[in-house]
Amino acid sequence: MGELKLMKGNEAVAEAAIRAGCDGYFGYPITPQSEVIEYLMAEKPYERTGMVVLQAESEVASINMLYGGAGSGKRVMTSSSSPGISLMAEGISYMAGAELPCLLVNVVRGGPGLGTIQPSQCDYFQTVKGGGHGDYRMFVLAPASVQEMSDFVKIGFEMAFKYRTPAMLLSDGVIGQMMEKVELFDPIPRRSEAEIIKECPWATTGKTPDRERNIITSLDLDSAKQEEHVIKLGKKYESMKQDVMFENIMTDDAEYLFVAYGSSARICQKAVDLARAEGIKVGLHRPITLYPFPEAELNRLASKVKGMLAVEMSLGQLVEDVRLAVNGKIKVDHYGRIGGMIHTPTQVVDALKKQIIGG
Amino acid sequence: MADVTLDVWKDIIKPENKVFSKTPLLTDKVFSYCPGCGHGTAHRVVAEVIEEMGIQKDTIGIAPVGCSVLAYEFLNIDMQQAAHGRAPALATALKRMWPEKYIFTYQGDGDLAAIGTAETIHACNRGENIVIIFINNGIYGMTGGQMAPTTLPGMKSSTSPYGREVEMMGNPLRMTELVAQLPGTYFVARHAVHKPGNVRKFKKAVRQAFENQKNNKGLSFIEVVSNCNSGWKMTPVAANEWMEQNMFPFYPLGDIKVDGQMVTKK
Fold first, then answer.
1. Which pLDDT score is estimated for B51?
2. CA neighbor of A119 nearest in space, from A179, A176, A173
3. Residue-level pLDDT at B3
């Protein structure tokens, strides 16, 4: 068994980064995730593993630092919260276009605008539909516990390098700030220059006589070639479906389903218990990857149940993907508090009764 | 009129007639720059310095957004192309990821002194151990001649068609003097590449800048006051004359900071 610790979600991300062999963290403080860089600065990973930690002058700078670091094959990451991720959107798009791997962590707060510093799940569209300009997707993981904040850092890096694309942990202020027991994974050593050159033959490690020069760019002024490039990206995003992850809780005999990710999934777990105590056969489907989305599994479940309630701290974003997956087979509705308010399990059960069972 | 003999070149290219050859650090790709533009010369100088120092395998360059966005097609080294203005942020991380490698950015005035002002100032202020080559032609060349942060008062551009009115459009920015004030810059100079003597001085400065990086001295920042005959709507010769008469008084050539010390004007 790995080392056990009581940690905040944000601290677990930071410790996991060091253990995942991350080469560089570049970030800018923003509530509710500043503990990530605070933990790293206090922990001095440059002494533990040689990992670089730098506080940038803005989120715009930090994402472009990731571009530079990732372009040379290093494992780089940043973390931020909603308004900061908006500032990074341009850089994320460039990294997707240039096919650069990196890990991003969004500890979501309520918006739009400066909104609130309290938790929300209102960045779903921004995260899974693109966010920046152009046709691109990220590999998106939604942790629902402090344990997953740690574990998904490792998986996020694996997926980012497997698909040469930015990967994001879409968390929220609840998961980032709460403390739970976490079993830390054993440290993975940082890769040597020789290993990077072998694993990332595309990286700008310096042109040697045995190879052509490596260029990192998202630009191609030849429309035919640019079309070819974007089609290739599209196929890659399609192929990510082989790594879809989800969890079904008490779905075998369920007549109704909650569909929720992250902290809403934790709330829905309790709501399932409350509803079942009242004799309502309800289960929970939790997408773990939001892109790729478990659409095939949701479509299969739609043939078994009478209705689904997508629960998300938003005006209703996840619900659109659930509806697309269900494709009109059954009723699907949305419930969720917004603006930093967090729904209670009782409110979720009431919404199920009113909007799905009685509706 | 006699027929033009088309195989005259065969005599010209005989080895015994060779007086100059292009550095192998430039690719065979034909420059996309306008005839008369200074970018080609500036590229050649950077390439020659990399060749002479024997650091091709250890050098990573960063291209901006602007006319030199395709610099990576001409320089025979590993390169990254940055989002508009962000080259110093890329360079910051690259250098910290690979401290033993040589990292430089090559940026225009719109890229470095307008949209990338924050990244430029903070990279300079942190004293990142990198080289920044800054080509200032007082205009946005690639997008078709719009006003730049460096456009002179009264100077015409497509977005200041009656000349830059300072009261309405603000003053041109002397970025090089500004970054020289920051403790993180070690070497700051302003050069030109329109005449052989200027090219020689610029090359010496570029060499100094890369030597500074080798010796972990901090940030070296070299501005090249250049022309944009297309954007200025002049012939190449007229553009160079106009540059000498108008750009040089506002952007005077010479060393501004050497070995971390401000150069005092005599």
1. 98
2. A173
3. 59
Percent of chain A whose pLDDT exceeds 70: 100
Predicted complex ipTM: 0.95
Give the predicted TM-score (pTM) of the model.
0.95
Domain ranges of chain B: 31-262
Comparing alpha-carbon positions, the chain A residue that sits nearest to B86 is A64
Tokens 């919404």 locate to A351
A250 and A163 within one domain: no
Please say which residue of A148, A163, A183 terminates a domain: A183
Tokens 């800048």 sit on residue: B209
Q: What is the mean pLDDT of residues A194-208?
A: 97
Q: Is a pLDDT exceeding 80 seen at residue A359?
A: no
Q: Which of B80, B96, B122 sits opposite A216 (nearest CB)?
A: B80
| Residue B9: predicted pLDDT | 81
Is pLDDT of A240 > 70?
yes
Q: Which of B109, B98, B61, B55 is nearest to B82 (CA)?
A: B61
Per the structure, the complete domain to which residue A286 belongs is given by 245-357
When pLDDT is averaged across residues A193-212 and rounded to a whole number, the result is: 97
pLDDT tier at A338, thresholds 50, 70, 90: very high
pLDDT < 50 stretches in chain B: 1
Task: Please report whether residue A190 resides in a domain.
Answer: no
Using an 8 Å CB-CB cutoff, list residues of chain A that contact chain B: 23-24, 26, 52, 54, 56-58, 60-62, 64-69, 71-72, 74, 76, 90-91, 94, 98, 204-209, 213-219
B148 to A135, A349, B40, B152: CA distances (angstroms)? 31, 59, 21, 9
Please report, in angstroms and rounded to a whole number, the separation of the first and last CA atoms in chain B.
Answer: 60
3-state helix vs strand vs coil in chain A, percent to 5: 45, 20, 35
Total number of domains in chain A = 2
- Tell me the chain A residues in contact with residue B91 when contact means C-beta distances shorter than 8 Å: 68
Short-list A328, A290, A333, A294, CA closest to A156: A290
Architecture of the domain made up of B31-262: 3-Layer(aba) Sandwich (3.40)
* Residue A32 and residue A125 in one domain: yes
Measure Cα distances from A92 to A127, A284, A330 in Å.
11, 32, 36
Minimum mean pLDDT range among A302-306, A334-338, B15-19, B160-164: B15-19
**CATH number of the domain within which A82 lies:** 3.40.50.970
Give which of A326, A345, A327, A325 is closest to A335, Cα–Cα.
Answer: A345
Q: Which residues of chain B from 56 to 115 reach within 8 Å of chain A, CB to CB?
A: 56-60, 62-63, 69-70, 72, 76-83, 86, 89-94, 96-98, 101
Mean predicted lDDT score pLDDT of chain A:
97
Note whether A45 and A154 are same-domain residues.
yes
